[in-house]
Each structure stands twice: as structure tokens, then as C-alpha cells.
């Protein structure tokens, strides 16, 4: 999660998120790790980052199908 905080301006960029979502022609599959949806308070220190976090949370709330994966159950090949 430290890397996400270091790169928060990129990760939560509204322009980048908008392009990623609107380029889909038929279906958009988004993988969002829970820590990106529920970051530490430090991530909210920048207004643009806060807007990106809110956008990600709204995207999650609007999703038709949500599949929760427990990474602890994933086994290495």
C-alpha cells in the first residue's frame, strides 16, 4: 500500500480513470483492491486525489456484478 500512496496522483487521476472506463466498447472489467477503495486518511490530503477516490467508490457502488476474491486462497502454480 506504500507504493499506492507514493503514486496516488497517478492511481487516483480522474482523467486516467475516465479514459480507462470510457474506452470499453461492450464491457468493462475493473479490478480494484479493497485498500484502494479504503485508503488511509493521508491519501485525502490532496483534493484531486480525494475526487479520484470518490470516483472509484462510486464506480464500485454502481457495478452490476461484484466478485470478491480472497487472495489468501489463490495458490501459486
User: What percent strand?
Assistant: under 5%
Largest sheet: none
Number of domains: 1
Uncertain spans, ≥5 residues at pLDDT below 50? Answer: none
Assign a percent range to the helix content.
40-55%
Mean pLDDT: 81
What is the approximate shape?
A: globular
End-to-end span in angstroms?
25 Å
Based on CA atoms alone, the radius of gyration comes out at 14 Å
Our count of helices gives 5
Number of strand segments: 0
Keywords:
5 helices, about 0% strand, globular, about 80 residues, mainly alpha
Description:
The structure is a single chain. This protein has 77 residues and is an all-alpha fold. It has one domain. 49% of the residues lie in helices and 0% in strands. The chain has five helices and no strands. The longest helix has 16 residues, at 47-62. It is globular. The chain starts with a helix and ends in a 15-residue tail after the last helix. The relative contact order is 0.18. The model has no long low-confidence stretch (mean pLDDT 81).
Give me a quick take on this structure.
The protein has 77 residues and is mainly α. The chain is 49% helix and 0% strand.
Provide the fold topology.
Blueprint: H1 2-6, H2 8-11, H3 14-22, H4 34-37, H5 47-62
Amino acid at each position: 500500500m506504500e507504493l499506492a500512496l507514493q503514486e496516488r496522483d497517478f492511481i487516483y487521476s480522474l482523467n486516467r480513470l475516465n479514459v480507462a472506463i470510457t474506452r470499453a466498447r461492450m464491457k468493462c472489467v475493473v479490478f480494484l483492491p479493497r485498500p484502494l477503495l479504503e485508503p488511509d486518511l493521508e491519501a485525502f490530503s490532496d483534493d484531486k486525489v480525494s475526487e479520484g477516490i470518490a470516483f472509484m467508490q462510486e464506480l464500485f457502488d454502481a457495478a452490476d456484478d461484484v466478485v470478491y476474491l480472497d487472495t489468501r486462497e489463490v495458490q501459486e502454480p
